Amino acid sequence: MPLVCVCSPKGGVGKTTVTANLAYALARAGSKVLAIDFDVQNALRLHFGVPLSDGRGYVAKAIESADWSQSVLTAGSNMFVLPYGDVSEEQRLEFEQRLSTDSHFLMRGLSTLLNYPGLVIIADFPPGPNPALKAVSRLADLHLVTMLADTASLSLLPHIENHRLIGEPLNNKAGYYFILNQSDNRRHISRDVTAFMQQRLGDRLLGVINRDESVAEANASQQSIFDFSPASAAAFDIELISKRVAGILDIKIGDGAVHTGLRTSNF
């Protein structure tokens, strides 16, 4: 059960879109993939066709329920999503407090999912430091830090490298890597930042996703980039990143075993 965390030091970098499309790419390759949303904005579900009016999620019942897998929704072949859900401010604060103070809270809630054979879990987080990212980091196999090809993201690179995102190293297993999103060769600054990141990070830069209008159009239609525009530059870039993730984590496809299906709901 590999657990991949997708995070960012700042908002507006397309992190949730990267999370969703990376999940789609791994599912297309044959893995069973679960996308978990730890962001109160509850936007990840929209990338999987869940209606805006559907407020189901795990956080509202997280304190009383010992098994969050009961809130998993089926989002297509090999694809599942665990939405944050609609919550009150009191529920959000209580959830974050338990994440911060109860070291077993997260493990109890995710135990069924963490032990499901062959399931790849990709988790999306709010930007910047947050209790969920710190709690999940102790269980994660890999972190992917999403940044833009701009000077604002570039200025935050030392923030990540000096472990200031959660106050300690992001990952003690396979480590952390960077994804540079919306690189645009037509713009001087974007081109220079991309070149600098490639030189500075080397192999730690897992991939560069080219700026592509079809990504926003796919989001608007609640589709993956692979379904909306399979020949697009962004689809190629994300698929390449997914293959590198699979290589780092040694994800094996099709082990021949038959496993009990996840208990899920449709929408």
From TrEMBL:
Residue spans crossing the bilayer: none
InterPro entries: Cellulose_synthase_operon_BcsQ, DNA_Partitioning_ATPase, P-loop_NTPase
PANTHER family: COBYRINIC ACID AC-DIAMIDE SYNTHASE, P-LOOP CONTAINING NUCLEOSIDE TRIPHOSPHATE HYDROLASE
Name of the protein described by the UniProt record: Cellulose synthase
